[in-house]
Amino acid sequence: MTVITSTPYCRDSKKIMRFETFKLTDYPPSLLETFTDQTLEPGPSVTLKCVAQGNPLPQIIWTLDSGTIPENTRFRLGDYVRTGRDSTEVVSYVNITSVRPEDGGLYECEASNDVGKATHSARVNVFGPPFVRSMSNMSVVAGETLRLQCPVGGHPIETIKWEKDGVRLPLNHRQKVFPNGTLLVRNIEKASDSGPYKCSASNADGITAENSLHIKVIVRPLIEPFAFPKSLQTGQRFSVLCTVTEGDPPIRIQWIKDGLQSFLASAHDGVRSVVVTPFSTTLVFESLAPEHRGNYTCVASNAAGTMSHTAPMVIHGMA
Hints:
Layout: E1 2-11, E2 14-23, E3 27-33, E4 38-40, E5 46-55, E6 59-64, E7 75-83, E8 88-96, E9 105-112, E10 117-126, E11 128-132, E12 138-141, E13 146-149, E14 152-155, E15 159-164, E16 167-168, E17 175-177, E18 182-185, H1 190-193, E19 195-202, E20 208-218, E21 222-223, E22 238-246, E23 252-257, E24 271-277, E25 280-285, E26 294-302, E27 305-313
Parallel strand pairs: 4-10, 12-20
Antiparallel strand pairs: 1-2, 3-5, 5-8, 6-9, 7-8, 9-10, 11-14, 13-18, 15-16, 15-19, 17-18, 19-20, 21-22, 22-25, 23-26, 24-25, 26-27
């Protein structure tokens, strides 16, 4: 960002405006003030505060056990800008009135701008029976790592466990349950890892709370490789098939030539794309011409991601 300032000075009894230009360097957020772990009795009010600086001025968001802050009248979120002699800071806070056992959990503030981000988290424990907040269903891409945090309130908690289809986890080397209630599933698979998951928390008195969510594992498209024959001639009819062998529907398939997505709508006469099935598309050339040579890419995309395959077309007998 470039800033122009004007400084008046006098010369020969005349006021002259002198303009100076300087540049303010963008830099990522840093947290100047944060909050600490605390264990409380039910009843009092609690304030959690984070103060951040950065350029551009950062935005601060709050989460509780990786989810949104509860929406009720006892929770109040706010922020304001504080300007000092040397810096401008964002002050963000969460006020909790009449704190309850179910308000306990891992609170996190994240300050972010276009350059980067900074985060801080600390746990608030409130004495009382176990409580497990509701969890939103999730979609996870096959092959990635699933991380689930059990949103537990109440204190003290003796055990936290996860189950899938009524069986306690972990079941294999890809799964791990940490003492803090976090479930980790590496290289997640659609066949074995999709389905309902339940988290339960218990105290020493045998009081248990639980809640569940459903995990949907989605698969990226996979394209069967194709190639153009080396013997193509001008005037010849030809077609090439792009088939998506894996991936969850709906799948969108499109053709690109030399990086141009709009080549089918341009002046390339005699070329059309024909949908064969929901998972395959044919590119048809009614009569090969010199302008048809180039690199052709089939792109398949769904909610899990995008896959592409490119092959060059060489045409002989060009004028």
